[in-house]
Design brief:
Number of strands: 0
Distance between the termini: 81 Å
Helix content: over 70%
CATH class of the largest domain: Mainly Alpha
Number of helices: 11
Radius of gyration: 20 Å
Number of domains: 2
CATH architecture of the largest domain: Orthogonal Bundle
Mean pLDDT: 88
Low-confidence stretches: none
Strand content: under 5%
Structural class: mainly alpha
Largest sheet: none
CATH superfamily of the largest domain: Tetracycline Repressor, domain 2
CATH topology of the largest domain: Tetracycline Repressor, domain 2
Length: 203
């Protein structure tokens, strides 16, 4: 008698298939029948694990985004000097964006069309991501490494700096026009984020 695969394996195959097809075809273009076929399951099995395509998207974003690795990363950088901790955070975030470059590209295209459900899911995910940056900054504040500032606005700024670098280098192809030392760029971003650009505080 053939052994049945664990439900967790089936669920994982569906999630991986959904990630692949969403990245290739977009959320609107990838139908559940094709996702099920890619995963090697019946469509009814897909719906047994995920009650709707929207729920499947939510789970994909939760499972395969930077938010999922943030708790482990926070533990890893907890004892690092402040500048090194933020440099590590920025570097890992950019690495993750590069790894999921096709996914990021298709999500940007889908957001231009802005279907209401996708818009809500995306911004809920973004709130979670910014929450991870806030947790990091709060951790550094508690250690006395960072001063007092609006953590949410700081998170938006930090995210924007990292994402803009990724967007220019990877999506717009600047790296093919003019090479840069990525480590040096990230360290400079972090230095400016921490210390600003003024030579001294205004009187």
């Amino acid at each position: 008698m053939a052994r049945t695969q664990p439900e967790s394996d089936t669920r994982e195959r569906i999630l991986c298939a959904a990630l692949k097809l969403f990245a290739e075809m977009g959320y609107a273009g990838a139908c559940t029948k094709e996702i099920a076929r890619e995963a090697g399951v019946a469509e009814v099995t897909l719906f047994r694990h995920f009650v709707s395509k929207d729920k499947l998207l939510e789970e994909v974003m939760s499972r395969f985004t930077f938010v999922s690795v943030m708790p482990q990363l926070l533990a890893e950088i907890a004892a690092l000097p402040c500048e090194e901790a933020l440099t590590t955070l920025a570097g890992r975030f950019i690495d993750y964006l590069v790894l999921r470059k096709d996914w990021v590209r298709i999500m940007q295209a889908e957001m231009q069309r802005a279907p209401a459900k996708l818009f809500t899911v995306y911004h809920a995910f973004l709130d979670d991501l910014l929450g991870g940056f806030v947790a990091c900054f709060r951790q550094l504040q508690q250690r006395g490494c960072l001063g007092d500032f609006d953590l949410e606005q700081g998170a938006r700024m930090f995210h924007g700096i990292c994402f803009n670098y990724f967007n220019q280098e990877e999506l717009q192809g600047r790296k093919n026009y003019k090479s840069t030392d990525r480590e040096l760029v990230i360290r400079e971003f972090v230095r400016i984020f921490l210390y600003g650009t003024c030579s001294r505080r205004s009187e």
